[in-house]
Write a structure and sequence with these properties.
The structure is a single chain. With 249 residues, the protein is an all-alpha fold. It has one domain (55-241): Tetraspanin (Cd81 Antigen, Extracellular Domain, Chain: A, Orthogonal Bundle). It has helices spanning 2-15, 19-24, 30-54, 57-83, 85-101, 107-120, 178-181, 190-200, 202-245. α1 runs antiparallel to α3 and α4 packs across α5 (85-101). 23% of the residues are buried. Mean pLDDT is 84; it is low at 19-26. It holds the Pfam family Tetraspanin. Keywords: Cell junction, Cell membrane, Cytoplasm, Disulfide bond, Glycoprotein, Membrane, Transmembrane, Transmembrane helix. InterPro entries: Tetraspanin/Peripherin, Tetraspanin_animals, Tetraspanin_EC2_sf. Disulfide bonds join 122-155, 123-139.
Length: 249
């Protein structure tokens, strides 16, 4: 049921977008990610549920194999991310820069970036001047945009007593130096903030990884136990049929 809800929400969010914007940022579209994860989750849980109810060995084996592959991929990703941390950092930087370029093309992506910059108190990838990669915030003199040389409002330092958010608070900030801009916006990039957050929350991330791994391992174990029980029952039925056909039994 959860996977079906995920697919429905993803499809609905995708249909609300303009076709041009959807094609422009397909690789970083949260709606597509939600649909893909929902479909995979539905297929895997369907195999496990129907396989256990119908005592179907093929479906149970498919369920067990899929869970095993997912678990091994998660383990490999964690190990490779730890060993090749520099390359992982470069990949994260590439993803963030791609998201900055398509900031105005996708409302979901825009909300995600704004949320991240607010939560981590950061702006851009390496620095706030990374926003010049976006065609609307570019600092070139030929840029006709009203947001030329600006940064999104989510980069701004907010007053706790401010009732209404000034969405134009980042106007002209890229033209300022780090020292001048730091009085109005977050000048540190989100990559360093993200890395520092990961280092500070290793136990939390480890607990989340363990919480995801334990149900997978339990599912694999239960699927194998049920498969072995079904095979034992089949062998027992064949054994009884053979002896019933034996006239000396």
């Amino acid at each position: 049921m959860i996977s079906m809800v995920m697919v429905a929400v993803g499809v609905y969010a995708r249909l609300l977008k303009h076709a041009e914007a959807a094609m422009a940022c397909l690789a970083v579209d949260p709606a597509i990610l939600l649909v893909v994860v929902g479909i995979l989750t539905f297929l895997i849980t369907f195999c496990g549920c129907v396989g256990s109810l119908r005592e179907n060995i093929c479906l149970l084996q498919a369920f067990s194999i899929c869970l095993t592959i997912i678990f091994l991929l998660q383990l490999a990703a964690g190990v490779l991310g730890f060993i090749f941390s520099d390359k992982a950092r470069g990949k994260v930087s590439e993803i963030i820069n791609g998201a900055i370029v398509h900031y105005r093309d996708d409302l979901d992506l825009q909300n995600l970036i704004d949320f991240g910059q607010k939560e981590f108190s950061c702006c851009g990838g390496v620095s706030y001047k990374d926003w010049s990669q976006n065609m609307y915030f570019n600092c070139t003199a030929t840029n006709p945009s009203r947001e030329r040389c600006s940064v999104p409002f989510s980069c701004c330092l907010h007053d706790a007593h401010e009732a209404v958010i000034n969405t134009m608070c980042g106007q002209g900030m890229q033209a300022m130096s780090y020292l001048e801009a730091s009085a109005f916006i977050y000048t540190n990039g989100c990559i360093d903030k993200l890395v520092n957050w990961i280092h500070s929350n290793l136990f939390l991330l480890g607990g989340i990884a363990l919480g995801l791994a334990v149900p997978q391992l339990v599912g694999i174990l239960l699927a194998q136990i049920l498969t072995n029980q079904i095979r034992d029952q089949i062998k027992l039925q064949l054994y009884n049929q053979q002896h019933r056909a034996d006239p000396w039994y």
